[in-house]
Amino acid sequence: MDAPSPIPTEIPTAERLDAAASVRRLVDALVGHVGDPDALAEVARTAASLADRLEEGPRRVRDTGRMLRYDAPVPEGGELSCWPECSVSGVAHGASSGISGRRDGDEAVLTATLGPAKEGLPGVVHGGAVASLFDESMGWALWMDTVPSVTAWLRVDYRAPVPSGVEVEIRATARERDGRKIMMEAKATVDGALVAEAEGLFIVPRAFGES
What we know:
By secondary structure, the protein is of the alpha+beta class.
């Protein structure tokens, strides 16, 4: 029998969104709590059984072409979002970071409270997870003005540990543009105190007709 053909990614259903949220909660609970042996064994059995069940279905083609950019600039105070399957901010992704965002003038403002699943050392968010938030916020700062882009490079300066379980705010904006090249900058704060800052070079793809 031939293997099932891939099917295009659908708009996330309520069931998929609920499943992703539950998976995120489960991973945080697994990392952040002791768990008795029976509960851990049940997690292993249930997770394996559900993975088997999902893998029996056809594979999905996750088509990013359905969400290349906003149709119009996001208005002041408007909510920012990304592709639902994004591993950093996607609401339909079981390993994303539970991010929210809004427009504040020329800045994209991203807020996130990262739990145990995103820690490096206990109680401290992994530097790579912080870097992913910078990358995401810079992309949002361009997308909110309908500018599609990809990251060329990203530099992060860490000023202080980012504690897990505490809200971190990142503000990102474009600093200068030269044709298809756009220099971005961003700062991360916790309770108003600077914990990290970053700069990055983003490129507008030729496919979008930019000179």
